[in-house]
């Protein structure tokens, strides 16, 4: 079974997260809320697809880690808002499955948590410049409406959330290294070995 999985081309797998991203785009445009495409989970599906297609281990690791970090927040948001869109479930759960498979194939590397944090800041900047405040995508405009901690100041809230993200990425890196050791040569039939 594992041998068969090893022989799957990562380029073939790339079409799955690309499909999830496309499905999200289609749904959000149809619902007249294209701003929601900029949530980190959705953009990370696109990043993962690009990494898989171009055989770039660093992009694969960052995209996969960011998808997995976002899953608990997705379920918290679902519990609070009751958003039951099928495309969102497919995007998150499908993306998570591909993320785990991809990390198993390429392995983890030390220092990837910093790249994940940079990706987080990039998605924050994109959300700030390309989305409308009423959508509060990636909570870049105001404190999340269901904030259980009772923050009053957005600056301290943002710093807390960003620090929490950094800690989560760091903890995940430690776990990934243990469960998905880095492979110097992994096939894509074989993916290019990278410096990072």
Structure description:
The chain has 196 residues and is an all-alpha fold. The protein is 66% helix and 2% strand. It has one domain. The chain has a two-stranded antiparallel sheet with strand order 1-2. Helix 5 packs antiparallel against helix 6 and helix 7 runs antiparallel to helix 8. The model is unreliable at 187-196 (pLDDT under 50).
Salient structural properties:
single chain, 196 residues, mainly alpha, two-stranded antiparallel sheet, 8 helices, 2 strands, disordered C terminus
Strand percentage:
under 5%
Task: Quote the average pLDDT.
Answer: 86
- Sheet having the most strands: 2 strands, antiparallel
Q: Indicate the low-confidence ranges by residue numbers.
A: 187-196
Number of β-strand runs? 2
- H/E element string? HHHHHHHHEE
Cα end-to-end separation: 29 Å
